[in-house]
Amino acid sequence: MTASEVQAWFVREVLPLEAALMQFLRRSRRNASDADDLRHDVYVRVCEAALKEIPAATKPFVFSIARNLVIDRARHDQVVPIEAMADLDDLSVATDVPGPDRSVAAREELRTLQSALDRLPPRCREAVVMRKIDGLSRKEIAARMGIAEITVRRHISDGMAVLADAVYGETPNTGKTP
Amino acid sequence: MSAPVQELVAQAAQWRERRDGNDWSDADQAAFDAWLNQSLGHRVEYWRIDAAWSRADRLVALKSPGVRGSTGTLHASALKGIAALIGAVAIGLAWTGYFDAPREKIYSTPVGGREILTLADGSQIELNTDTTLRTSVDDAQRTVFLDKGEAFFKVKHDAAHPFVVTAAGHRVVDLGTKFVIRNSGDRLEVSLIEGSARFEPVSDTKNMHPIVLTPGEAVVATPDTITEIKKTGQMLSDETGWRRGIIVLHRTTLAEAVAEFNRYNARKLVIATPSLARTRVGGTFPVEDVEAFTRVAKQVLGLKVQEKGDEILISR
Prior knowledge:
The complex is a heterodimer.
Chain A: H1 3-14, H2 18-28, H3 32-52, H4 58-77, H5 82-88, H6 102-118, H7 122-132, H8 138-145, H9 149-169
Helix pairs in contact in A: 1-3, 2-3, 2-5, 3-4, 6-9, 7-9, 8-9
Chain B: H1 2-20, H2 26-38, H3 40-55, H4 71-85, E1 103-108, E2 115-118, E3 124-127, E4 132-137, E5 142-154, E6 163-167, E7 170-183, E8 188-200, E9 211-213, E10 217-222, E11 225-230, H5 233-239, E12 246-253, H6 254-264, E13 268-271, E14 280-286, H7 290-299, E15 304-308, E16 311-315
Parallel strand pairs in B: 5-6, 13-16
Antiparallel strand pairs in B: 1-4, 2-3, 3-5, 4-5, 5-7, 6-7, 7-8, 8-9, 8-10, 10-11, 12-14, 15-16
């Protein structure tokens, strides 16, 4: 498989599993930063395998890799959180994205993005809005916000990282705090 | 343990941000390629950031005219935008501006995308790949802004409500017509297919007088020149092949052919041997079928085709 084939597959089939994957990893590990770390390792292993051959069934494949990594990590730490082990055989995490009505999907998508946007720090959000919604250049944003271009760049790249977590990693909820 | 991953995510985001700028140089590309090739871990984080950032393109649906730059107001109107959007999202397209008069709607297609819009008056606009346009209809006039890309217009003529397309500052006024406009940023091309239309150059260009176009006539406008050209029916049919999902090459230089495929595909063709740029090629290809094209390059032209990252290199 070429890198771009793997990329297309990864974006289309693996990334949408991220919310479920993170849920699984968080429950399996004691702290959230471990989960980010594991997420990265899962993606690298999944893509390594996909470069040889794209797996036929993505979800079981991704979760079996996640499960193995959690076990390895637990062995290494010699500490096994009890819930994690209980969870390992129960991968019935809701991951099937409903998609019967494309207009509903588009609306949901916009809601997800809007709530992701709301999560950004104010200045960062301001810069992202000017870039994405108003289509302004770095220079124009810098002028309007009265900051240096380099700061605009930092706001935008910080914003990208938060948006990525929000659109892929967060478990969708109905806007209520859990 | 988490610092390295967060650091990778940050680096990926910084690269993605840099690529958006118009100051992306060959040296930047080389440094970026080197970073990507350092490890698969770099690649996957970049893919993830890139995909999220592309998804965020949809946020443009929240755009509301008249509140540029003031995020406080924008936030409120963005919510109205969502309210307006409910029940009103066309497939792949979103519109907004519901609460503002005149009503402006934004339509856009991604790379490789194509959409047909039918306006309330029955006029049709067909958007080619990577195109953004806005429509605004009021009592006096139907206005379309072709911000980027290419579109085919089939206009229901109505002298009482002129249909005007504005692109790169120039205006094209319908006089009962089918026409195509392609806005590539520094170059605007208007080709008339049926009926007629009046091309009105932006006022600060040297050639100030309006030009009435009839079928087979085209105008090419760059920031400082305006040229009238003639096109045969065959040329017009080839150039609008995208409406049928095809690219038609007819003694086209390899450089132009590659540029044409790259308009429709995320994986980019690159001519690695500069002297090949002027080689001529012909044939008809589905817009997204880069492989069909590279097969011809390999088998008919005897060139080397090599995949490298997100690029396909063509060399001798």
